[in-house]
Design brief:
Keywords: Membrane, Transmembrane, Transmembrane helix. It is found in: Membrane. InterPro entries: MAPEG-like_dom_sf, Membr-assoc_MAPEG. This protein has six helices and no strands. The protein is an all-alpha fold.
């Protein structure tokens, strides 16, 4: 199992870290809210809403990252070191993205998101 494959698992799990932050970070989530969590999420504002948005973005980007890692491995033209470094950089960008989202640093968040997307593209260019 390569470092890049472990990074795919991390990318899959990172949105759930945001789920925990969303539900318990604001101190408002209890058993009553668990009966209708979507209504709870619809009513969020501020920090909780940003955590939920970061969660959704994580679910959106994880498949593209997983595909890029798998394709890079299958193509076999990029070195394993390159693939692993790109994967670790992507996970780092996702962690920074979550921090930026939670801190409400919108411009920096967009820049970090752009870096993450460029890293996904880099898997393909490294495999040419």
């Amino acid at each position: 199992m390569t470092v890049a494959f472990w990074c795919v698992l991390i990318a899959i799990l990172l949105p759930y870290v945001c789920t925990v932050i969303t539900r318990f970070g604001g101190g408002k989530f209890g058993l009553r809210e668990n009966h209708d969590p979507r209504a709870f999420l619809d009513g969020l504002e501020g920090f909780g809403k940003r955590a939920h948005s970061a969660q959704l973005n994580g679910f959106e980007v994880a498949p593209a990252f997983a595909a890029a890692v798998i394709i890079a491995h299958i193509a076999g033209t990029a070195s394993l070191v390159t693939i692993n470094v790109l994967a670790v950089l992507f996970i780092t960008s996702r962690l920074l993205y979550i921090i930026c989202y939670l801190a409400d640093w919108a411009i920096l968040r967009t820049l970090v998101w752009s870096v993450g997307m460029a890293l996904i593209a880099a898997f393909f260019f490294a495999s040419i």
